[in-house]
Amino acid sequence: MRNLIAHCLIACLGGVLFGAQCLAGPAASYRMSEWSKITSNLSMRVSCPSNCIASPRGDGDFDIYAKCEVRNTGKEAIAVRQRARLYLVDDTGQTTKCQHYATGVYPSPLVRAGEVTSWWENGVFQREGAVKLYACWEEKNEMLQTSAIPITIRQAKLRDDLEGFRRSVLQKHVQEFARLVPNTNLAAASFTKVVFTNEPIAIDGLLYNAFSFVMPDEAGDLIWSLVYETPANNEIFWYIIPEQGTRQGFESGNSETLQIDYPGIGRKGDKLLLQKLERANLTPNQRYLIWFQCPYRDVPAVTVSLNVLSERTTCHAILAHALPADPMQSGPRKVIQYDESGSRRVIQYDK
To answer: What is the reported pTM?
Structure first.
């Protein structure tokens, strides 16, 4: 069980723990296509490491990722859905459309005139070697296809110490990650959205991002919560590591389902994870990373409540403060809330 926890992919539900291979390789140079303009108001390009390290899936397939960028060349703002398909052309000219996973989570940011939106797109392929890669984006009557770029695909190799190698790679990039300051007052617990503006870290075909924080001078328990959407295949894995060395991390977690919409936090049906790490496993003034990885795309943002409390309390007591009651919802509705002791209680709001 200890080895399973060490690989830590504490996935979404109810403290269920998953182990997974997370490999890493050296940084690679990127090839980038020229901007291709096929629609009247949008242009697009794709980029990928010239030596593309792919993550094996164990069934003969492996995953590759490419960065897609769409520019608004018009004069008015356009909502651009971040979804595309990757295509590979071999040396005989045969084109293969890469399979990918329909997660249902496709942000559609409003892109103003002259601005660019970007995301990392997943593709599933079955062979190694030299190919040409291009991407195609379609939405209603709009269609974009990039020019092709030459890449060489190689499967990532297994390592003897998967966890240690992943940890060392992420620790080297600590200065690139977003920095948060943990809340130390129970009554001030709240949620915040962390938008990752840095490029994700590619670790042998998988994309990682993280935020970091420094433990306060006064010892305390780390209690944190994560809200995320849960359509099919929208898995997110995460774990905590110190900036230097190793320490015991999360061993379990609890999850709930949001029963109503919480503006700025999550929507009805989203999952909410709660985890606690005892102060004995944390060092005051030490910086820590909480990393995230999704098998199907990069993780562009997370909504979290990050708290370090010297007073002894429960995970659910955090929610009593961080999730405000919202009687303005059309109803009646039944919602689960918590009192200071963490006890569950059901409230029914009237219209």
So the answer is: 0.77
